[in-house]
Amino acid sequence: MPDDVAAARAAAEEEAAFAHPAVDPDSTAAYGDHPDQLIDFYTPRVEAVPGGGPAPLVVVLHGGAWRAAYDRRHISPFADFLARRGFAVASVEYRRGSAIPAQGGSGPVAGRWPETFDDVAAALDALPRLVREKLVPADVRRTVVTGHSAGGHLALWAAARHLLPADAPWHLDRPAPLRGAVALAPIADFEVADKLDVCAGAARQLLGGEEKFAERRPYADPSLLLPTGIATTLVQGRTDLTVPQAVAESYADAAAKAGEVVGLTLLEDVGHFPLIDPAADACAVVAEEIAQLAW
Question: What is the pTM of this model?
Fold first, then answer.
């Protein structure tokens, strides 16, 4: 496909995904004092829950290159789509990058170190309590974490916290109580992403720039945190120009070398954004991948 045609197609996919109006949650809870430390809950449609009873809990981590311009509102139609498929959904907000010169520039940068990771860890740890307090009809014993793009990275990272260096503040002594992880077009290998300049150097910026990149990778790069022992599937569009297929394939290869098989579902003629577009066939594929791990 010629470059200009591919770019036009990618732009159309992005426009279609962002055309859906934001969907308000059924409830929202704070997991910290910062305004961004919030979780939106979407209640499952009871009639869609096989056999009735509490639904599996799907934790959604939004993308946007860990940059402040993108918040959880853009993924709310996807969260609502999952709720309509019978899942209880927890959509997590977290602190993202802005104009922080110390992290590699004077303009918008990717993420905040260590706050972005602080928040994802704190949100996941607080979820069982918040589900009880908000009376969310969810079975936390069947929790699957998913995320798109930068959020896909965070989903993989959340499933690997027990493999973090012992001095990491987010380290867990045992695997997180997750039924599985489904990462959508994830920034899953920071070395490959950096070489491809994914999202204008977002992975390098997230870790604090050139000086901190190598030092902090063992604390943040999912491709270095394997094997997790948690069922993991990657869903990737073959025509993704934002996070190319090579990034997901590199993570899958790293997992195999570590003795772990991860699922890699490659979708033909699909780019970056259809994975979270409720009107796209790819979104139904994502829901099915989640269901296979959750039910």
Answer: 0.96
